[in-house]
Amino acid sequence: MAQAQYIRYSRGMLKRFAAIKILLALSLAGALICARVALAQTNAVSPPLKARQLTGLKVENSDGQKVGTVRNLVLDVKTGRLRYVVIGSGGILGVRASLKVVPSRAMSTATAKRQTLAVNATATQWNHAPAFKLSELLSLADPNHAREISRDFEMSPTGAIVATNSASTTKHATAANSPVLELKFASDLIGMSVVNQKQEKIGEIMDLLVSFGEPRPAFAIISSGRLFHREHHYAVPLNALSASTRDGKLTLSADTTTLQQAPQFNQLIWAAAAGMTSNQIYSYSTPED
Q1: pLDDT for 186-203, tens place per residue?
Q2: Which helix (H) or strand (E) covers residue 77, if one does?
Q3: Domain 49-174, what fold?
Q4: Integer-rounded Cα radius of gyration of the chain
Q5: Which of 201, 197, 202 is nearest to 253 (CA)?
Q6: Cα three-residue angle 232-289-252, rounded to 5 degrees
Q7: Rounded to a whole number, what is the distance in angstroms from the first to the last CA of the chain?
Q8: How crowded is the C-beta side of 13, counted as CA atoms within 13 Å?
Q9: Using an 8 Å Cβ cutoff, are 194 and 222 in contact?
Q10: Which CATH code is given to the segment(s) 183-283?
Q11: pTM score
Q12: Sequence ranges of the chain with CATH classification 2.30.30.240
C-alpha cells in the first residue's frame, strides 16, 4: 500500500515538474519574441548621421549621375530639426561652386555605393532646380520659397512649410534685434561655445547627429574638454540650446549634477527621439572613449 502511494506521489511530482518546465519555456519564448520585436523596431530606425562625416560625401540623382557633394547642412535651431542639405559642384576648393539646396526628406543613405548619398530627383529635375547662395540662408525661412523647393523635388510642401513657419518672414526685419536664432548652417554651429545659465563654460559643439527622411530632432554633441585627464561628451537636443546674439554663445540649462548623472545615449533613445519633446541630456560615448 505504501509503495503504491509512493508511486502515485512520484508520478504527481513528475507531472508538476513537467508543467513547470513548460511554463518556463513559454515564458522564455515570450521574452525572446518581445526582445526580437523591440530589436527589430530599433533596427528599423537608421542610426544617426554625423554632420562632419556627411560633409564631402558624393551625391547622385535617381538616374545614378553624380550631381555634387555635400557642402553644408541647414538646421532650424528653434525646432532642432535638419531642414536642408546644401549640395555643391564645381569650383576650386569650394570657391565659386554651384550650389543647390535640397529638403532633407529628399535625401537618402540607401545606395549601393559607399560614401555616396542619393537625392530624390531625376537629371531633368536637378537641372531645373534653382541655384542657391550661402547669403540666401534667411530666404529659406520664407514659406513661399520652401514651397517652391518642395515642388522642385516632387515633395509635399507640408513638411517644409511647417518647418519654416517658426521662422516666418517677419523675422527678416527683426533678425538683428531678436535673441532667437532660427536657421543656421551646421558649419556655424560646430565649434560654438556652450555655457550654463551662470555663463560658466560647459564645452563646445564638436558635431551634430541628424537624419534624413522622417523628421527627427537633431542632437548636438558637446565636448566638455578634459576634466581629470578625461574628455567628456554629451548628446543634447539642439532645441535645448538657446542662443544669444550678444556673445555668440549657446546656453544650456544644466548644472554639474545634471551632467554627472546624465544617462547613456544609445540607439533606443535615438529611435524614440521622433516623438520626443523633452530636453533630456545624455552622456555620449565616442569610439575613443
Answers
A1: 999 999 999 998 888 999
A2: none
A3: SH3 type barrels. (2.30.30)
A4: 26
A5: 197
A6: 25
A7: 72
A8: 6
A9: yes
A10: 2.30.30.240
A11: 0.74
A12: 49-174, 183-283
